[in-house]
Design goal:
alpha+beta; TATA-Binding Protein; six-stranded antiparallel β-sheet; 4 helices; 6 strands; 26% strand; disordered N terminus
Length: 155
């Protein structure tokens, strides 16, 4: 096998490693809050109020948490490579698979009621790699863009 073939085989093997997508493993809201509070790191991005990058800011939608959850699921269902794993108690867990090597990124969304709106916080983390080359930021950008379309149709 060529050197390139070995590298590709190794990357494909890595892509199948990592956490499962067992819906029973959905973390409770307080665990997601702890994950969000850990901030950004190697292969992880989280939303925060003061983020310079708009993809890394929480988003507010003029919908109830239930309506927002439906809009999120509709948005994720419309995106290729995305899958909703589970949702409960204001937490939605989705995964996104990269096209070429099929790496899996876990995306946790926390929906918090705020007066007559819902604030959505997000965390996107790579399972099998430390350097994500900006993929997790792109994940959140793709999510927010699809969610904007979904919210418009929800109203």
């Amino acid at each position: 096998m060529t050197r390139l073939g070995l590298v590709v085989a190794g990357l494909l093997a890595l892509s199948s490693c990592g956490a499962s997508t067992d819906p029973a493993a959905l973390p409770p809201p307080d665990a997601v809050v702890r994950l969000l509070s850990q901030g950004n790191g190697a292969g992880v991005v989280v939303t925060s109020d003061g983020a310079e990058d708009p993809r890394l800011r929480p988003h507010v939608y003029p919908l109830s948490p239930v309506q927002s959850a439906h809009a999120v699921v509709d948005a994720l269902d419309s995106l290729p490579q995305w899958e909703v794993v589970a949702g409960r108690d204001g937490v939605i867990w989705a995964t996104r698979r990269t096209r070429i090597f099929h790496f899996v990124d876990d995306v946790y969304l926390l929906l918090q009621p705020a007066h007559d709106s819902t604030v959505i916080f997000a965390r996107s983390a790579s399972r099998a790699r430390k350097a994500d080359f900006g993929q997790n930021r792109r994940n959140l950008g793709e999510l927010w863009q699809a969610l904007e379309k979904s919210v418009k149709s929800e109203k």
